[in-house]
Design goal:
238 residues; 40% helix; 10 strands; 8 helices; alpha+beta
Amino acid sequence: MVFADFLRGRRRDLLSAQDLEALEAAVADVRNLPPRKTFISRDQNITTSTYLLEGVMCRYMDDRQGERQLVAVHVAGDFVDLHGYPLGHLDHDLATLTACRVALVPHVALDHLVATRPALTKLLWFSTLLDAAMHREWIFRLGRLDAIARVSHFFCETEARLRAIGRSDGSHFTLPMTQADLGEACGITSVHMNRMLRDLKDRNLLAMRRHDVEIRDRKGLERLGEFDPAYLFLEEQN
């Protein structure tokens, strides 16, 4: 089932079996993408929406010196560019961080779903509103938190999202991002990120070995990062 992870833990049960079948039938192609490649460029006209089945993708923007800022990180179960459906293009670049598998849904197929499937339309709308809520939280994180709190918040958010799709047990998960990637998500250099990871380990809050993350004190990490998962609109997690 292509959309097995779509909005899992976020009232996907509101969809009927026919809605899910219609969404599955709208997929025109499934592709494997290589890691570290820009998939959609800023201002490129797009006629399909991309659903991430496996892997990690990011949205990013470059400054005039070519320095990259990640503005979103996407995991399995995300429509990574659904906002491009009404807009017709993106105002940022979309790239793979790892090898990825994606499903492509043509906008003409979405036109039909929106016209005929009100419950599905509401859920797709919810997906874009959730995306906006996460962007607001990222603005708060980058604008108001210090470096160690930003990093803590990012790991708390990522763990909660992965737990929602069954890819974290609450303490351990895999995150195939480099320290440079993490720094670009948190607005700090890779050297500073290395220091922050050491600091979190020394505080016995979190340890990261290559791509394996162990959260040793989730409540403590949440306090440090001022993390409240309400903006993720997840069903209650323990």
